[in-house]
C-alpha cells in the first residue's frame, strides 16, 4: 500500500495523490470507475427503497415511513461525505471496506427488520420503540456508507487522470444519477415482483460487494500491500458466502417468520402484484383468517362485521348494489341473502383475492359460493376509476368495504372527491354505507370520515358495533392476543335525500343475525363518542 505519510518533494503532490499505476489505459480506467459508480448508486437506491417498502408493509403509513427513511439517509450521507475526507489517503482500501460493509448491512437489513417484527410481536406495545429505532439505525448506517463513497471515488478517478474539479464532479454525478434511475426502476418492476423483498436485498448486497472488490483488486491493486489484498479477497468471499447462505435459507426463514406472525395454521401465502395474501385456518372447524399485507381483514367476528356493514344499507330499495372492495365475497354473501336483489357489481383491485374467493375451500364455504351466483358481476379495477366511469343514478346501494382510512394508500378512498363520485352513482333514494374503522381506538379518523361524507352532500347516520366478546363501543384498537381484530367497528350510513333511518330490512336468511335492538344501541354508542369541529379530508389535504 502507498505510504500516505511519506514526505513529498517540494511542489509535488503527496504520495497518496500520485498518479495510479494502472494495468489498463487511463481512459479504460476512468470508464471502469464510472461503471462502478453506476452500480453502487443503483445498489444504494435499492437499499433505500427496500427499507421504505418493508417499513410501510410492516408499520403502515407509507408517507411517514418514506419520510423517516429518506430524510435520515440524506442527513447521514452528508455526515458520511465529511467523514470520508479522513479516508482519502487510503482511498482504494477505504472504498473496498465501505462496499463490504454496505453489502453486509444493506443486504441483510430487510431480513433483520422482518425478523424483529416476526419474533417480537407487533410494532406496537412494549416493542414500539425498538423496531423503529432499528429502522432508523439501518437508514443511518446505510446513508453514512453511501455518502462516504463519493469523495473516495472522486479521489480514485482524479488519480487516474487529473482534470478540473467541475468536470470530474459532472462525470461522477452523471454516472451516480443514471445508476440511481436504474436501481429505482429495477426495484418495483423487476426485483420485487420476481424475487421478493428479502432475496432482492441479498442479491443487491452481492452485486455491491463484487463491484467494489473487483474495482479495487482489478484496477488499484498496486495501491494495496500483499496482505491487504488477501484481506480484501477474504472479506469479499466471506461476504458473498454469507449472503448466498442467507439466500439459500430465505424460504425457510420466511416460513418460520410467517408462522411466528400468523401462527402455525398458515394454509396459503401468496404475493400478488398488489399485496401479500395469507389465509389461516378455515378447515376442520378452525376459524378462517384472511390477512392482507399483514393486516387482519377476515377474522372470527366477520359475520357480525359484514351484517353490520351490509344489512342497514339494504333497508330500502336495493335491486342494484355496488360493492367496492370485498373481494373475499363475504359482503356479497350478505347482500345475496336479502330478497329483491337483482344485480351485484363487485369491484376488487386484486385479482388474486378474487381467485382465492372463488377457489379456496375454506373461503368459498365462508362466502357461501357467492361468486357462483349469476347476479354477481366482478370487475378487477380500482374503486376511484370505476366510479368515474359509472353513469349517474345507477345504484340503489353502494357498500364501501375498503381498507382502513389510516393507511396512506387508502386515504383517497375516504376523500370528499371520492364520496362525491359515490353520490353521483347513487339513485335519488340510494344509500351508501362506509366501514370507517374502530371508533374507540381512533375516534378522530372515524369522525373525519363522517365529516367528509357530509361535506360531499350526503346525510349521515353513524353507528358503532362492538365485537361479540365486548358488545360495546368501548375497546382498544386490537384484540387480546394480538390478532389485530378491532374490539369495535365504526360505520357511516348515508343518503342524499335525508338522514337515513337506522333499521334492518325485513326477510332474508341471516344466521346469528344482528338485531334491531343492537343496531339502535350502536347508534347511541356513536353519539356518545361524537367529535365535532373536524374538517373534511380531500385529495390535496388528507386528514387521517
CATH architecture of the largest domain: Up-down Bundle
Mean pLDDT, all residues: 88
User: What multimeric state do the chains show?
Assistant: single chain
Coarse structural class: alpha/beta
Class of the largest domain, according to the CATH hierarchy?
Mainly Alpha
- Count of discrete structural domains: 2
**Contiguous runs where pLDDT drops below 50 for at least 5 residues:** 123-127, 468-483
Instruction: Calculate Rg over CA atoms.
Output: 29 Å
For the sheet with most strands, the description reads: 7 strands, mixed
Number of helices: 14
Q: If strands are numbered along the chain, what order do they take across the biggest sheet?
A: 7-6-5-8-9-11-10
CATH third-level topology of the largest domain: Growth Hormone, Chain: A
* Annotation, overall tally of beta strands: 11
Principal-axes geometry comes out as elongated
Find the CATH superfamily of the largest domain.
Answer: MFS general substrate transporter like domains
Can you write the helix and strand succession as a string?
HHHHHHEEEEHEHEHHEHEHEHEEH
**Terminal Cα span:** 58 Å
Helix content: 40-55%
Kindly estimate the percentage of residues that lie in beta strands according to DSSP. Answer: 5-15%
Q: What does the model show?
A:
This is Polyamine aminopropyltransferase. Belongs to the spermidine/spermine synthase family. This protein has 544 residues and is α/β, with parallel strands linked by helices. It folds into 2 domains: 248 residues, MFS general substrate transporter like domains (Growth Hormone, Chain: A); 229 residues, 3-Layer(aba) Sandwich (Rossmann fold), CATH 3.40.50. 52% of the residues lie in helices and 13% in strands. Strand 5, helix 8 and strand 6 form a beta-alpha-beta unit. It is elongated, with a radius of gyration of 29 Å.
